[in-house]
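Researcher: Go.
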Amino acid sequence: MRILVTGASGYIGGKLVDVLSGKDWVEHIVGTDIKPPHKKNPRCKFDIRDVRAPMDDLFTDEGIDTVVHAAYVLPPIHDTALMEDINKNGTRNILNTAAKYNIRQILYTSSTTAYGFHPDNDIPLTEKSPLRGNDDMTYAKNKKEIEKIMSDFAADHPEISLSTVRPCFVVGPGFNNPMAEHLRKKLVMIPANTRPWQFVHEDDLIAVMALLLEKRIAGVFNVTADGTLTFKEMIRMLGNIALPVPWPVIYPLNQLAWIMRLWFMTKFPSPAMRMMVEPWIATSEKLVRETGYQFQYDSRAAFADFVRSVRSDKA
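Model: Structure:
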């Protein structure tokens, strides 16, 4: 395979490039991102390029036959219009370009946030559950909207295999986003009525993505490990202290800190906190049934590996 990976300098894209470079069924890898990767990979040709920029030359010059679309603005930014432009129009650009050439498969990294955070969510969420990503949380809203874009594309291009993974919160040694930073604070302010979370280890997600590529498996798959953890358990495992705050207090307080860019208090807007207080548990039963994949980590073990990496960094 000759694979193009967008978002190749990111958390998931970068780890996937590393794993794919060791596969004998991969002939060539091209990575794109707006910043260079942390380390060079001799089997990956890297190109600094906005995901919204023309891509035709990469497809023709490199003979791309497979696309992994992992480019996405994950950390919230105040310019939501720019965030949406990159996420949605970047996706459209990749799909429109892929449709022009002899592409066999597209793998898109979605998220269980596409289901949204609602009190009446299915428990557990399955691939047949409705996608109701909350409109006041740009990340979840865009994940929902991009899946519709993907679905329409698949209907128009049945000759291209479309694979979509919906991981829950991904953890491991590379876990380093606003939520990771929040949990690492000595005093962690959380809503008083949090719900348990589930995780998937970064190695499991990457292994699933590699499997779907190697076997050319199309379809939509939740990628979530068994079990859950409460926020108090997570914070205690990290050696920190939980500070539960009633929802009517924490929501406006956090939002004010976000608007005023008080980074020491928060790095995400208050709508994102709904993922802490609404049921949001998905099942990977379909993935296991159709691919035979066996997870290396459950949620607790995955988070524990993150804890070990944090302690190692402090040592």
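Model: The longest helix spans residues 80-100.
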